Structures are given as C-alpha cells and as structure tokens.
Hints:
By secondary structure, the chain is an all-alpha fold. Helices cover 69% and strands 3% of the residues. The chain has helices at 2-6, 10-22, 41-50, 53-69, 78-86, 93-109, 113-125, 134-150, 156-170, 173-180, 194-207, 213-225, 231-247, 251-262, 271-282, 291-307, 311-328, 331-347, 351-368, 373-388, 395-404, 409-422, 426-437, 450-464, 467-477, 495-505, 509-526, 529-540, 546-559; strands at residues 26-28, 36-38, 484-487, 490-494.
Amino acid sequence: MLTAATEIDEDRLIEILERAATVALVTESSESPGRFRFVHALISHTLYQDLGPTRRARAHLRIARALEALGAERAGRFAELAHHWAAASGADTGRARYFARRAGEAALAALAPVDAIGWFSRALELLDPGGDDDVERGWLLAGLAQAQLQAGRPEYRVTRREAGRVALRAADRELLVAIALCTPIFESVEPSDTDFIAVVEAALSAVGGADSFPRARLLTALAEALDQRDWQRREDLASEAAAIAGRLDDQRGFYELAPRIFWNLMSPARLAERCDLAERAARIPSPASSSVAEFDVLHVMHYGRVEAADRAGADAAFGRLEELADRLGTPFSQWMLLQNRSWRLLCDGDLAAAEQTAQQGLEIATEMGVAAAMPAFGAQLLSIRIQQGRVDEIATLVADGVDDFVTLSDSWKSTVALVNCMCGRLDDVQIMLDQEFADRFEHLPQDQAWLFALSAWAECALALGRRDVAAFLAQRLRPYRSHMIYASSFMAGVVARTVGCLDAMLGDRASAEANLRHALDIHQHFGAVYWTARTQLDLADVVDAPELVDAARVAIDRYGLEGLRPRLK
C-alpha cells in the first residue's frame, strides 16, 4: 500500500523503513512480514502535524486511491476508505460520502451503533447544501436514525421524522420501507405519532397487498405506532402479520417477525397463541449474525413462560437472556435484563436488591429517552412498597401518573384506586369505582395491564363490600385463573387468588377454597415468596388452618414482608 501511495520503489521503501526502525521510530511486525507500525502514537501525530494542509490532503488522497486499487472496498475496509477520502479536502466528496455511508452500514451490522452515528453524521455533512439528491439524504437520515435507535439515543425520533418527510416527498418505495421499519420492539406509552404512521401506511401501499415478510413486518410496525388504547386494531394487524408469516416458508423471516407479533397480541385470551409463537421461534436455530433477533426471541419466550406460571422454563430462558445481554451490551438489552432481574429478586424475597436493580434500569431507560421508563419503574416500586407495607410513601407519585402517562390513564386509574384503598381512603375509592364500573370496565384496553387492572378493582370491591362488582369481576376473571398477572416488570400473583377471594366474599366457600388452593400451589411452585404467604392468609380466612398462618408468619419475619403483618393480628 505504501509503495502504491508513495510511488517509491519497493526495495527503496524497505530501506527507508529499516532506517526508521534503526532509530526506533517504527518497528517491523514479527508475525506479519511486510507490516510496520510506529513505536508510539506520538511519533505518528508529530509527523502528521508537521505536514502542511495541502501536502496532508494529497497524502490522504494518494492513500485512498491506493487502498481502492488494492481491493480495500472488496475487503470491507470502508472506515479506512471513508477516513482518507474525507480528509482529502474535497478531492472527491462523492467518494467520501459513499464510503462514509458504507462504513455506517458496516458499523450497524457489527452492532457498533456509536461508530455508525459518527459515519452517517459525517456523510450528511458531506452532502452538497445546494444539491437536489433528496433520496440520498433520506437514506443517510434513515441510517442515522437506526444507529441512534440501536445506541439508545432518544433523538432517533427527530431524525426519523425528518427522514420520513424526505421519503414521502420522494415517494421512494425502498426508502419508505427502511424508515417505517426503524421502530423499537418495546411498546411506547406516548400518544401515536401521526407523522410516522403516515410513513408506515405509505410503505404498506408501496409494497402492495401480496404476501411477503416486508408486508408482514410493516403491519407490525403500524401496530407498534398506534396508540396503546387502540388494542383491538393492534391485535388485528398482528394477526394479519401472523397469518402472512404462516403462509410463507421462511424460517429466518419468521424468527425476526415473531417477537413483534407477540407484543401486539397481549390480551389474556391470546396467551396460548403468543406462547406458541415464541416457542416456535425459539426452536429455529438462531442465525449467527442475528444476536439482536435472538435476544428478542428469548425475551418473549421468557415473558410468555412467566405469564403461563412456568418458573423452570422462565429460569432457563432468563439464563440464556443474561448471557446474550452481556454479549450485546446495548442499552436496550441491559434495560430489559435489569427489569426482569428486579421482579425476579422481588419474587425470591430480596426486596432491597430488587429496588436497587429497578433503579439501575430506570437510569439506563431515562438516558435512552424511553417513554415507558417511569411507568415501568413506578410499577416495580409499587410492587416493592406493597410488600414492605410502605405504599403511602408513593401515593402522590402514583396519582400523578394518570396525567403523566396519557395512553396508560385508563389502566393506571386502577393503580391509583388500589393505593387509595391500601391507604384507607375508601370514600375516594368508592367514587372512582362507580365511575369505572359504569360501563362494566369495557373502556379498559385488553393489553398486558388488563388482568392487573381488573384484579386491582377486585381488591377495591372486596374492601368496599361491593358484591355487584365482585360478582361481575369473578365471572370476567375466571377463564384466566391459571394466568400469572404479569405486566412488563410487575407481577401480582396468579388470577386464581383474586377469583378465590371474590368467591369467598360472595359466599361460595367451595369455589373459594378450590381457587385459593390452586393459587397456593402455583405460587409455591413458582417460588413467589410474598404471594405464597398472602395466599396462605387468604386461604386461612376461608378454612380453619392455623398452620397456614404460622407458615405466612415465618415468611413475613424472614423476608420483611411488613405489608402482610397487619393480617396476623
């Protein structure tokens, strides 16, 4: 390369390098003959600075041309080429821009999003301000948005919006699709982005109605972009995507699509369907280049197994999830890992570690600009404070959530009511319950928080002695008695416990005992310390079993479950 760049005869060049080695400026590699390096970076820096701007630019240009002539592009050495062409001071900005984009794309593929951000930003700087190549600008913006998304930078939304405007203006099919697929896999709690929805709908129109994985993936992108309260349409879009995937014989496509479908089929009635989806994807050998997709598949498999109260299966998935998250090292994977680790610590009775882990997750998610950061942390903190008997400390924080998290407001009201109930504000709870029960809770979106919301209203009905509400909720929840109430990072025991308590209030002691014993068995096998003790106390209220109270007392003392201590009196 030096021979080509300097146009010096090879023998003469080796002689110069050997003289430089004699005075300890460079050293020859013993492993790779023909390769030399500077003894210290300071030497390289000093020599570089001694070159005048013109000579420096000419040197970069010669090196860039020499690298290309020697096949550096075929070898994928895009970062080197981009660096030298860009430093050639405008000798060929088109080549510099081309290689900067290729370097950005290579960095994305190598899971190096921070490097990719630098290269796409550099390529955008190299665009001609007065030029009219809007499509190229759109592709560079699309690449930058994807890099920012991977790096956990919240500004990806602004970049994506700008790229979307370019794509709509240019009506470029491939660009529209690329921007439409620049979406995070986690759900947002922000109102729907109408500008982005327009891009996704334009991309769907561009790809046409024939079965294809791009179409299926765009359907999930549209579902993810919708308001969370529009749960039925989200499920319809995900179902259509699943149907397309079922008709196409493409394991790789299905592997990457399955997690996206999973997160948009969150009503309890679809549990078996989404668990089957996750398990089918998990049986497909993970492509070597798809660590991110593998993480997504493991994440939904873990989530589904928790919902199905399969602790052994969830533990196996979580072990693999930990290994992969450490390998990926992305902010999103670390946030997801910390969320899951927090509730698992809480489940095992380590309340202090659970809170510390949840706080670490909040810090990462906040830095990423994740809209769901505070709701997820709030749910975790509420679960911890309930077990500690310190719910009154976060009553104001929970109440503020109704206004802060607009798309979660319907479900969040049940949390506010539950906290008021635990704090003894029953008059406020009565008013809230009357308002929410007016339409028999039909306004609640049947998403991942639906079971929790109904179970929270059930606790309020029990505290207020509302038999009408209790009878309705017992009937509504009974089909899901074996489901774990699990919403992202908040686990509230199995549905059978709630149904059993409602049955007891309604005077059906046989059904109450059967449901509570079923719940106790699940909680014990799952290793849920708090929910086991709470169910033991619930069952002791129905049957004469002082040994259950004694067992609950042992757990309360051992794990500091002060929220249950008043029930021992």
